[in-house]
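Q: I'm writing up a methods section and want to include an example of the input and output format. Could you take the sequence below and give the corresponding predicted structure tokens, formatted cleanly so I can copy it straight into the document?
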Amino acid sequence: MTRTLETSVEHFPIAGSFTISRGSKTTASVVTCRVSGDGFTGVGECVPYGRYGETIVSVLAEIEAISPEIEAGLCRNGLLTAMKAGAARNAVDCALWDLEAKTSGMPVFAIANLIEPQPLTTAYTLSLGEPEAMAAQAAQYAHRALLKVKVGTADDAARIRAVRAAAPNSAIILDANEGWTEANLAYHFAVCAESRVALIEQPLPAGYDGLLASVSRPVPVCADESVHKTEDLPKLAGLYDAVNIKLDKTGGLTEALRMRDAARALNLKIMVGCMVGTSLGMAPAILLAQGAEFVDLDGPLLLARDREPGLRYEASLVFPPIPALWG
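A: Here is the clean output for your methods example:
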């Protein structure tokens, strides 16, 4: 099959702004990859992430460099060694999955020998702000089953307590985005336990994971920035209770499925997360997230405008993609 590969950059406005400990943004900029062959076109999306040294320009260059091999027929498994893990490989990998589904007439879940996807309860993310502002956000979304709360300052106790008081019945994931330190870790853990937090995501900077061995963990702790691919898992087992698998980190669904199975073999719980992107970026992750303990695929809910067609969200549920979107 003769193939062609095309890329484009698209910008989707965020509803308001999205703030974490590293800064704020008002636009989600994504790279879309389209691989065509035999009259069909497969699509994939990625979000370049500056924390990992990625830019729109660098991701486009990575995809352009691999384009001759993709057009010559490079398969998904070959892609694992031909490209490094990261956003660029994610866009290409997911486009190849979608193309295979369209040319074969089979959905991706069947090609991958996965269970047929069902609706999932997804978290809804609250931006970092002052305690009063975060309490107002929490009150607005207190009807949701699961909230993900951005923290990561020197003293987050007031924020944590304010959110819990405003959303007394919601399960809460706290995401510190590497913002806590050895000096305040035990203090924050105690406040999380008091506030019935279900999971704490990446409290310490990547590379300082060993410090978790020296402190009691009264609340389960999940690795995010510290874990990108399957080979990262063994050194984290025993330090973390869960891992956050994101397609933009693993470099696509192919590696993410390997990583999920390896994490389970190490008795690590699974969280499936996302960057702030569109429904196209979330769609493959819904297959990965079947059976996960925590799901955070709310990217499109944070946008002022999504793709058409997009994913269906109903209350706290996200539904599997329709073929017109992906897979």
